[in-house]
Amino acid sequence: MAKSGLEDILPLSPLQEGMLFHNLFDDQELDAYNVQVFIDLEGGTDPERLRRAGQALLERHANLRAAFRHEGVKRPVQLIPRRVVLPWGEEDLAGVAEEEREAAAERVAERDRWTRFDLSRPPLIRFTLVRLGPARHRLLLTLHHILADGWSMPILLRELMTLYTVHGDGTALPRVRPYRDYLGWLGGRDRDAARQAWTAAFAGLDAPSIVAPGRGALTAAPERIDFSEDEAASAALTRFARSNGLTVNTVIQGCWGLVLSHLTGRDDVVFGVTVSGRPPELPGVDTMVGLFMNTLPLRVRLRPAETLTGFLRRLQGEQARLIDHQWVGLAEIQRWAGSGELFDTAMVFENYPLNSSRGLPPGAAPDADLPTVLGVRSKDQMHYPLGLLALPRETLRFSLGYLPQVFDRARVEAVVAAFRRALRAVLDGPDTRVGAVALLDPEVRGTVLEKWSGSDDVRPAERFTDLFEEQVARTPGKTALIAPDGRLTYAELDAAANRLARRLVELGVGPERHVAVAVGRRTELVVGMLAVLKAGGAYVPVDPEYPPDRIRHMIQDADPALVLTTLDVDDRIGEECCGPLTFVMDDPGTGTSLGRHSGSALTDADRAAPLLPGHPAYVIYTSGTTGRPKGVVVEHRALSAFVRHCRSSQAPDISGLSVMQASASFDQSVGSLHAPLISGGCVRLTDLRALAETAGSEPGFHRATFMKGTPSHLALLATMPPEVAPSGTLTLGGEELRGEILAPWRETVPDVTVVNVYGPTEATGHCLEHWIAPDRTVEPGPVPIGTPHEGVRVYVLDSALRPVAPGLDGEVYLAGVQLARGYLGRGGLTAERFTADPFGAPGSRMYRTGDVAHWNDAGELVFAGRADRQVKLRGYRIELGEIEAAVAGGPGVRQAAVVLREDQPGDQRLVAYVVPDPGHWDEAAARARLALSLPDFMMPSAFVALDALPLSPNGKLDRAALPAPTYTGRTAGRAPRTPAEGILCDLYAEVLSLPAVTVDDDFFDLGGHSLLATRLVSRVRTTLGAELSIRQFFEAPTPAALAVVLAGAGRARAALTARPRPERLPLSYAQQRLWFLHLLEGPSPTYNIPTVLRLSGPLRPEALRAALLDVVGRHESLRTTFTEDELGARQVVHPADGVRPVFETAESTEADYEADLARAARHAFDLGAEIPVRARL
């Protein structure tokens, strides 16, 4: 554009800035802001006359000639040239067969509609005249929405036809008020007042309202579903609005808010609305042409107890307070609200004035040369995944636009049905409570509540002790238990438990009495638990490794009749009992005493009172929000129902050898101990590290057939011998399982069945499960948590306890026989979490889990997160509030916040942020104090001291703004003194992702945990060739101490040695997939794994080349190519002296090296001709 031809330079309106951003951001996709108007003409139409009219229209309105520039300026501007030529095209379809003509015309329009405008090259408008017959034409007017809004279109069309009438003479029309006057008005607004108003409007908003996260670029044209209400309903809606002082727009907005709440499961939602943006104080604004409209966020807060009429009145009042501030751009409002994208749905109420004339153009004298306007229609579309357009005419008409790449038509039809139900609810019951409005399709409601939710348990309630004793009778001589201190058959285990149970009865144990069991992994642990159950009591497992303060709280809170211990922990446990008697199970005197009791089974006559299925079986403590753990009371009937299900569903593996590697204080132990013991299985008490060592040292070691674990254990199992993994079934629960985490492990043990299970302690073990057979492929992403088993019901509900549709997130509620009784001594909390079941029999209860999930199309639940601040770490359910309370309770701490971070994939760590009193923060002292009250899995890996906690604009803690911790050495430690110490310091730093570590730094103080410890031990064994056990490492966690241990350690187990291999080497399953893709697509860099090292100091390139050659020679996979023969694909391993990897050198600069690296990383390997490794220096 020549500078001399420039008429004006203008700023952009807020919405123009947004449209320019979308155009630049999505420059390769379809442009949803192209608007197309169809004008059907009949009679004599002169193409040249019409073109001159269009040209005159551009000359009349300067802003229709605008070009938009953003480069080289601080803020984007629109440049107005003095003259541009109207793009004009003609298509003659008169010769096309009549039955095909309309389709051909639509193809012309569609092609024109989706041809992108370059916003920097004016004009952003074009005309195409389509000849449909001798006296029939269709004018296509296509323009970019950045030039004009919907209000402007009737004005433009009236003026176009008038200019046609007067042969393009612009003087026949009144003078135009320029668009720059509006932009000048915008510049005089009170920005501070607007900021205050919008900030107040969005105060307390917790989350945006997103129905299609990660929707990606627009790849297909938006589609829409048109629908309308009949005349009677339309009139009734208008009467209702007027009689209550409401606008029809407000009523429709409120109904869309109800639908959006239904779609998101939230009662505080936001969607976009459009306002005309034409300020009444600007004379003549109603006849101006341009983009005045604005898209604004509308917040809708739903209160279940409020009536629909009251809700709509409040909604209108909240909007009225923002009328003077509707000129502000959406991006600025979102910044003030402290959020990014606030919404991805919109609702437009199209109430601008229309020209309803037909035939002659307005103001035109009768003229036989003038065509008759048969009809005018337009096509535009929203770029939002869902957008409702309301057209208030004689009858209410609607159009719901959607992106087909996000929603299929059936899903959108369901949204339409929900919206119509919302409208009908307002008309039929305006006094209905908001929480009682049902938008879910009745058939879908029946599916999720009846077909998918599970079933009631029709079997009679049982006592666990009966199930166990029946198994003893079936397999008395079979080994039931293997522990570090010995083995017991079923008969021996039963007799020992019976003798102890009789003694416990003498000591006052019976139904509704608790007995703490503070025993490590020994036979006494299981004997003690069974004995308490047989005596009629409820056992309370207390992990002896817990911190003293936590043990003390658990024992005080449970108020047990006595505490079962063993000699190795009795002194320590006794100090914390504060009253209850300790009973030392392995004391010689105890053995003598118990020998005098019968080993036969107890009957109710032997107990203090009859044992009923409704009596408590155990109390397990879980993390609590108040800073103290809470005890969950589980009854015999719940425990029996759970283990019965495990016996039938997990057979035969559960009847083989099981591993109980979880602490007895963790509810995962219920399924790994009690279920095998009623199924004829043998239970090995151990942890994974000890099991790995046993696998290599125990003669005749038998691999387990069944094991329970958490997804975090997969990384640990991957570092261990394959014998540690079960051969039959692995059950995973306690935290989210993702396909990309599971798949690599399954490649190493492809024959194992994996069961992803779900269930909180309050629902006994687990109550939903998803089975993954060995031959089933698992896709990346969340693995479903499955379906409920018999006797369990599951609901996914919104905040008003209404069922949500499949695919929509809601909170998970559980009901049925496996529900716990409640929380020990906490009636208020029990009443809050265990509520009446509105869908069950009278008197039934349901448990509010706090978990968020959705139904998939197969009727399985998919976990989506937490509704509260509870997290799951390595299988443990943790209330962050409990840790925050402990941290904040320390001296010198003014504020504290704790988050679970995953700064590296798969490495989750708790991080505590503190605001200390100046000069009073002592991290070492804080760690020591917390170690007395928090178990290891709840200890923060890092502490970050801040001057203040970051807050969002609405005053809430901005967790996203909390800085990532820097894990560094916390002591002024010594430098390495020996090569071994130096290597250990490097390995510590590598595993912990730290820049450096001193020999005196403690692994766990640096943020390490048990899973990372396992990785480090593996690296030490490999690097130093020394035998090192996990226990040895835990006892010597600094490099200095560990170097001493390693000095006296033996050599590591013999490494794998080469064996004769077959002449033909087949491909692994993963290699077969990649080879197939290579053959299909040709050489590609898609699966390259580039590694970049930045080196400093003296470098000898030839030495580096030789080192690379040695590495390739050492690893056969690095000198392998692939080919095919008559049997299929095979590997070709080349001799070490027969290959030389490509080693290139090149010069680069600081400015260019990143681009050079990217080019090198994009090298496409020919897998059939070149080895899969190369280097560039």
Automatic annotation (TrEMBL):
Q: Which GO terms describe its molecular function?
A: catalytic activity; phosphopantetheine binding
Carrier domain location is 975-1050
Q: Which InterPro entries match?
A: AA_adenyl_dom, ACP-like_sf, AMP-bd_C, AMP-bd_C_sf, AMP-binding_CS, AMP-dep_synth/lig_dom, CAT-like_dom_sf, Condensation_dom
One protein family per Pfam: PP-binding
Task: Give any single GO term for biological process.
Answer: secondary metabolite biosynthetic process
Keyword terms: Phosphopantetheine, Phosphoprotein
Where, if anywhere, are coiled coils annotated?
none
Has UniProt tagged this entry with the keyword Phosphoprotein? yes
PROSITE patterns per the UniProt record, alphabetical: AMP_BINDING, CARRIER, PHOSPHOPANTETHEINE
What are the GO cellular component annotations? cytosol
Superkingdom classification of source = Bacteria
Q: Which cofactor does it need?
A: pantetheine 4'-phosphate
Q: Which family does it belong to?
A: Belongs to the ATP-dependent AMP-binding enzyme family.
Q: What is this protein called?
A: Amino acid adenylation domain-containing protein
Q: What is the lineage of its organism?
A: Bacteria, Bacillati, Actinomycetota, Actinomycetes, Kitasatosporales
